[in-house]
């Protein structure tokens, strides 16, 4: 497995980018789950998480990085649904989101996901869970998931990769967010490098994307699918759905694809 050359995210840490890319909000009501956690990722900085766990120690687990306008407690109902399917669902925030401290930036997001993965693996080991581990990223969270998928140790760290509504190319996304990439000196090959990163992943991969995604077009999902480096990969199109209603419109297809992947 080839590691993508370490990126310099200084350009993407531009305040204009952070202001438009991240939409943090605090967790006012909290989550009802008992497994609320704070994950230390840096000096004085903790990331909020909620690990929805089953009683079956052989259950597979999903480590989930959510979208830019979401927080951990938004996934309480979905966590319960995954548990009823026999899957542990471990959802984490970003800096400044939910119960997390700090301020969100691209460079910190790319740093923190590595610490979070190590924490999740230690948690599973200490609690005696022996099932497979899957890393999943939705929308903005695809950047964290693909950062992890591109590392040398990823094959031993987790077994499956799921990208839902993920972006392949950052420049069009920046344009949608109202930022001219050239105005901040951004070049596609110096940014997230999503396509290059997924090409490093040789394990089973599932790409889920809405047919009519109005923020990240379906063609991005196709590009990630084509570039994925493993032999076992699947692209699932959710008919009639857009970026925000993909799960509501395609829940059965969505969950069936995930169950099939975790069985592999």
Describe this protein's structure.
With 264 residues, this protein is an alpha/beta fold. The protein is 35% helix and 18% strand. It has nine helices and eight strands. The protein has helices spanning 15-21, 76-84, 106-126, 141-149, 154-157, 170-176, 194-200, 218-227, 246-263; strands spanning 36-42, 45-52, 61-65, 88-92, 133-138, 160-164, 205-210, 233-238. Strands 1-2-4-3-5-6-7-8 form an eight-stranded mixed beta sheet, sandwiched between helices. The two termini are 21 Å apart. The mean pLDDT is 93.
Q: What gap, in angstroms, lies between the N and C termini?
A: 21 Å
Provide the structure class: alpha/beta
Unreliable stretches: none
Number of domains: 1
Strand element count: 8
Q: For the record, what is the CATH homologous superfamily label?
A: Alpha/Beta hydrolase fold, catalytic domain
Order of strands, main sheet, comes to 1-2-4-3-5-6-7-8
CATH architecture tag? 3-Layer(aba) Sandwich
CATH class: Alpha Beta
Computed Rg: 17 Å
Beta-strand percentage?
A: 15-25%
Order of helix and strand elements from N to C terminus: HEEEHEHEHHEHHEHEH
- Residues in helix, %: 25-40%
Mean pLDDT: 93
Largest sheet: 8 strands, mixed
């Amino acid at each position: 497995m080839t590691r993508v050359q370490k990126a310099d995210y200084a350009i993407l840490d531009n305040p204009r980018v952070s202001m438009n890319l991240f939409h943090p909000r605090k967790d006012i009501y909290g989550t009802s789950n008992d497994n609320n956690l704070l994950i230390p990722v840096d000096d004085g900085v903790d990331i909020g998480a909620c690990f929805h766990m089953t009683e079956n120690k052989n259950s597979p687990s999903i480590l989930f990085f959510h979208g830019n306008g979401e927080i951990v407690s938004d996934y309480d109902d979905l966590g319960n649904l995954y548990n009823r399917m026999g899957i542990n669902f471990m959802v984490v925030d970003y800096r400044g989101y939910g119960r997390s401290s700090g301020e969100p930036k691209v460079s910190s997001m790319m740093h923190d996901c590595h610490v979070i993965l190590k924490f999740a693996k230690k948690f599973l080991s200490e609690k005696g869970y022996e099932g497979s581990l899957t890393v999943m990223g939705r929308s903005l969270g695809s950047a964290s998931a693909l950062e992890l998928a591109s590392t040398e140790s990823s094959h031993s760290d987790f077994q499956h990769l799921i990208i839902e509504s993920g972006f392949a190319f950052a420049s069009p996304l920046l344009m949608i967010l109202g930022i001219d990439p050239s105005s901040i000196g951004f070049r596609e090959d110096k940014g997230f490098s999503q396509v290059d990163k997924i090409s490093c992943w040789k394990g089973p991969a599932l790409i889920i994307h809405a047919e009519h995604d109005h923020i990240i077009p379906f063609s991005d999902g196709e590009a990630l699918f084509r570039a994925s480096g493993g032999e076992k990969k699947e692209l699932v199109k959710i008919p009639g759905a857009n970026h925000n209603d993909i799960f509501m419109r395609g829940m059965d297809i969505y969950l069936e694809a995930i169950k099939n992947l975790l069985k592999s």
